[in-house]
TrEMBL record:
Signal peptide (residue range): none
Domain HTH tetR-type: 1-60
Keyword Transmembrane attached: no
Protein name stated in the entry: TetR/AcrR family transcriptional regulator C-terminal domain-containing protein
Keywords associated with the record: DNA-binding, Repressor, Transcription, Transcription regulation
Segments passing through the bilayer: none
Coiled coil: none
The organism's place on the tree of life at top rank: Bacteria
One of the Pfam families matching this protein, by short name: TetR_C_1
InterPro entries: DNA-bd_HTH_TetR-type_CS, Homeodomain-like_sf, HTH-type_TetR-like_transc_reg, HTH_TetR, Repressor_TetR_C, Tet_transcr_reg_TetR, Tet_transcr_reg_TetR-rel_C_sf
Length: 193
């Protein structure tokens, strides 16, 4: 048993039972070990959850970074959609990710910020847009994943509109991008990072 095996099994357990039911006792039983042996790899459950969150984000964390000459608007939309898709890959993915610190992804985040700034987005607006979009996406996915346990839409009153999570996400993302677009420099007047 190694650290990676523990994280992989913990993520599988998450998918099976949900975040609220994940425990080191259940994980140890699943691995066929005594619970204290998990503490060799992770001092606390919080450390384990942080490693799970980092591993769950791997598909987004390994997506191609923006390159000089890329359209920042297209990249911003693609990046946001990649983040959402990744959170949706795991049961309670947004809940697992919420509050985690992206310590392993700081260089990638700096690259993304520098890309936005050199594309003409003022640094403060780029920071706020990345933060706002991240929180918006986490909130959207939290709601979408919570809806998996809600009643059948047929049980709702006739005048209650059905929610299309994809359409709601795209509409909100377009609003964030539109607001950010209003703060960008004129074409060809790129700021320096």
């Amino acid at each position: 048993m190694n650290r990676q095996t523990v994280v992989t099994e913990a993520l599988d357990l998450l998918d099976d039972v949900g975040l609220e039911t994940v425990s080191t006792r259940r994980l140890a039983k699943r691995l066929g070990v005594e619970q204290p042996s998990l503490y060799y790899h992770f001092k606390t459950k919080k450390d384990l959850l942080a490693a799970m969150a980092e591993a769950a984000m791997a598909p987004h964390a390994t997506a191609p970074l923006p390159q000089h000459g890329d359209d920042w608007r297209t990249w911003f939309l693609d990046n946001s959609r990649s983040f959402r898709r990744t959170l949706l890959m795991r049961r309670d993915g947004a809940l697992l990710h919420a509050g985690s610190t992206p310590t392993g992804a700081l260089d990638r985040l700096r690259h993304k910020m520098a890309f936005l700034v050199t594309s003409g987005v003022p640094e403060q607006q780029a920071q706020m847009a990345m933060l706002a979009s991240s929180r918006f996406i986490i909130g959207c996915v939290l709601e979408e994943q919570a809806d998996a346990d809600t009643p059948d839409p047929g049980d709702l009153p006739d005048d209650f509109p059905a929610l299309d999570h994809e359409a709601a996400f795209e509409a909100g993302l377009a609003l964030i991008l539109g607001g950010l677009d209003q703060h960008t420099a004129a074409p060809g007047a790129a700021a320096t990072p």
